[in-house]
Amino acid sequence: MTASLTDTRSSELFRHALELLPGGVNSPVRAMRAIGREPIFIARGEGAELYDVDGNCYVDYVCSWGPLIHGHAHPEVLAAIGVAAAKGTSFGAPTPGELELADEVARRMEGVDMLRMTSSGTEAAMTALRLARAATGRERVLKFAGAYHGHVDDLLAVAGSGLATGGLPASPGVPAGAAAGTVVVPWNDADALLAATERHELAAIVAEPLPANMGLVPPRDGFLELLRDRADANGALLVLDEVISGFRVASGGAQELLGVSGDLTILGKVIGGGLPAAAVGGSSELMRMLAPSGEVYQAGTLSGNPLAVAAGLATLELLDEAAYLRLGAITERLAAGLREAAGDYPVQVVSAPGLLAVFFSEGPVDSFEGAQACDRGAHASWCRELLSRGIYPPPSQFEAWFPSLAHTPEQLERTIEAASAAFSCLAQMGLSR
Ligand SMILES: Cc1ncc(COP(=O)(O)O)c(C=O)c1O
After folding, report:
1. What's the rounded Cα separation, in Å, for the pair 257 and 207?
2. Distance of alpha carbon 23 from the chain centroid
3. In the annotation, is 229 catalytic?
């Protein structure tokens, strides 16, 4: 069932968008530049399928970059939003739902006694840094190359020329001083982590416990334990960013799946069920440092928004033990099918429940450097071929696939068939190596 993509209307809208929005989009990866094509304008989504403005239908593996673990327009999530909206969309005052959500999160996430909600993961990361600095009386933080924690100045840093120099701005406009306070260490590099933690007094070690912003690069055996150990030895807080992995890879996130525990946890995506919500959580002792119970200032007009809280609660309520087993099975079938589809084409399919990456690499990828060394040209061609066959993959080698509970066996088989045809096309184009 090969359908070639008609994109006249998307193309027209994109020309118009280029006049109104920088690059035609409101967030860069949507522009699809990494796979050498224009963005597709979406009309609607249903379950695991997306429909574009040209009438094409796709099996969606982006799912809004993670929040939609039950797929698009799930009836129970929509109903909860509807009920909440009918009562008013925002009050700037506490509502009972915020307590229910904080309670539900505390029940699921070990180490989270209290929660402060924000509207985006970026804000939650910013809040976690401020809290860690206030708690330790230190400023410097450590992050890992290739990890993404939102567009917080301090965390938009790349490695400088040596450990002594701190980080360099990863974007124009990031103050050199902000980046210099961030030590950037290669992921999975125990020696570099030891050296950095011996050299610097840190406020925080910030990490995605299951990094999913460089494809999907799980920690090597013992690496998370080392993070915990080095944070304690250094006197730093371990800040675990579970914006992607939280409530996705397990009820208690990557911390439950991989057996590690952070001092502060950053949450986002699933917690808002597709509406803007995120949070930082931790022990009561740390969290009570936030205003107004403590001195650390943090605020937000729409924080704990009743619609987002209702969507998040409805989403979490559907995530029981059976749901996680099913999501694991869906992901495994997809991963196995993509490996079969690739045949002897050199790719590495990596997965965790609800997450997957297809690296165009001859060998395993366990660092950002490894992800950067992938054949991104071949990956881009493969993604374009998938799109032309009605499959919507994340349009970058550095983004993970988000299989959801809405993906049906038929859609998975359709995906595997399209992937197989797309690999054959690459081989025909001479892109096999
Ligand atoms: C691990 C991680 N942390 C933080 C963020 C920032 O979240 P937001 O886009 O809601 O600001 C993201 C966004 O993708 C993320 O993947």
Report:
1. 15
2. 22
3. no
Task: Report, as an integer, the average pLDDT of 251-257.
Answer: 98
| 185-219 per-position pLDDT tens digit | 999 999 999 999 999 999 999 999 999 999 999 99
Main-chain dihedrals φ then ψ at residue 89, nearest 5 degrees = -90, -20
Enumerate the H helices of 87-206 as residue ranges.
Answer: 96-108, 121-136, 176-180, 190-199
How far apart CA 327 and CA 270 sit, in angstroms, is: 14
CA distance 101 to 120: 16
Task: Extract the runs of DSSP E, i.e. beta strands, from 208-341.
Answer: 237-242, 264-267, 278-282
pLDDT of residue 6: 82
Say whether pTM exceeds 0.90: yes
CA distance 308 to 85: 10
Reported as type and span, the H/E element at residue 157 is strand 157-158
The one catalytic residue among 61, 148, 324, 392: 148
| Spatial contact of 221 and 192, defined as CB atoms under 8 Å apart | no
The predicted pLDDT at position 3 comes to: 45
Give how far the C-alpha of residue 292 lies from the chain's centroid of Cα atoms, to the nearest Å.
30
Tell whether ligand 1 has an atom less than 6 A from the beta carbon of residue 149.
yes
The answer, yes or no, to whether any atom of ligand 1 lies below 6 A from the CB of 278, is: yes
Count the Cβ atoms, other than its own, within 10 Å of residue 256.
18
Q: Are 206 and 231 in contact (CB under 8 A)?
A: no
Buried b (16+ CB within 10 A) or exposed e, 88-102: eeeeeeebebbebbb
Q: Which is nearest to 211 in space by CA: 350, 7, 409, 49?
A: 350
Q: Kindly report the backbone phi and psi dihedral angles of residue 49, in degrees, each rounded to the nearest multiple of 5, phi listed first.
A: -115, 145
Given 60, 153, 189, 241, which residue is catalytic? 241
Contacts with 166 (C-beta within 8 Å, 6 or more apart), sequence order: 140, 157, 160, 179, 180, 181, 182, 183
Over residues 314-343, the mean pLDDT reads 98
Q: How far is the CA of 34 from the centre of ligand 1 (A)?
A: 19
In the three-class reduction of DSSP (H, G, I as helix; E, B as strand; rest coil), residue 115 is classed as: strand
Question: Would residue 241 show up in a list of annotated catalytic residues for this protein?
Answer: yes
Residue-wise pLDDT for 261-281, tens only, equals: 999 999 999 999 999 999 999
Q: Could you confirm whether 269 is annotated as catalytic?
A: yes
- For the segment 319-348, the average pLDDT, to the nearest whole number, is 98
Q: Is 401 helix (H, G, I), strand (E, B) or coil?
A: strand
**410 alpha carbon, distance to own chain's centre:** 26
**Both tokens assigned to 314:** 């409805």
